[in-house]
Write a structure and sequence with these properties.
The protein contains 3 helices and 7 strands, in the order H-E-E-E-E-H-E-E-H-E. With about 170 residues, the chain is an alpha+beta fold. Strands 1, 2, 3, 4, 5, 6 and 7 form a 7-stranded antiparallel sheet that branches.
Length: about 170
C-alpha cells in the first residue's frame, strides 16, 4: 500500500513540473507575440484618433488605445492599412484592447506577475462601423476577410499590408 501512495505522489510531482514548463513556454510565446504586435516590423505603426479623426504614426510596440497627440485622450487605435492593385493605401480595419486588458499587457511587458486568464482578445472594427468585436469571433474574422480596396475592389491575396516608412538613424 505504501508503494502505491508514493508512486501517486511522484506522478503528481511530474505532472506539476510539466504544467509549470508548459505555462512558462506559453508565457514566452505570449510576450513574444505582444512585442510583434499584429506582425508589424519593428518601428512605427499607423494610429487613428477616434475623437478627432487624426491619423499619425507611433511606436508599433505601443498597446492601443494610446494617447492622441492632438487631444491628449486615450482614443487613438491601431490602424491596419493595405494597398490594392492600384497602389493606393487605405485602412482595412482598426485594432485596440479594452482598457483593463491594456493595463494587464503593459504590466506583463514590465515583467510584473499578471493573471493571464484575465487578458481578453484584441478588438476590431471596420472603418465604416462603430461596433468593436472580438478579433477571433465570427464578426472579427468576417471583418478581416472582407477587407476590400475602395478604389479597385482588390481583396485577399491582391492586398498588400502597408507600414509607415522607417526613419533612418
Amino acid at each position: 500500500m505504501a508503494s502505491i501512495n508514493s508512486s501517486r505522489g511522484g506522478s503528481q510531482g511530474i505532472i506539476a513540473i510539466i504544467a509549470i514548463i508548459c505555462i512558462a513556454i506559453a508565457a514566452v510565446f505570449i510576450f513574444k507575440g505582444l512585442k510583434e504586435q499584429s506582425g508589424a516590423p519593428p518601428g512605427d505603426a499607423y494610429y487613428y484618433c477616434e475623437d478627432c479623426d487624426y491619423e499619425f504614426t507611433a511606436s508599433s510596440t505601443d498597446i492601443p488605445p494610446i494617447k492622441c497627440p492632438k487631444t491628449g485622450t486615450l482614443t487613438a487605435v491601431h490602424a491596419i492599412k493595405f494597398k490594392g492593385a492600384d497602389g493606393k493605401a487605405f485602412t482595412g480595419y482598426y485594432e485596440k484592447y479594452d482598457l483593463e486588458t491594456k493595463r494587464l499587457i503593459e504590466a506583463l511587458k514590465r515583467g510584473e506577475k499578471v493573471d493571464q486568464g484575465k487578458i481578453k482578445q484584441l478588438l476590431l472594427r471596420a472603418p465604416d462601423d462603430t461596433d468593436w468585436v472580438e478579433s477571433l469571433g465570427p464578426d472579427g474574422i468576417a471583418i478581416i476577410n472582407s477587407v476590400t480596396s475602395p478604389t479597385d475592389d482588390s481583396t485577399g491575396q491582391a492586398l498588400e499590408r502597408v507600414y509607415p516608412l522607417q526613419k533612418k538613424e
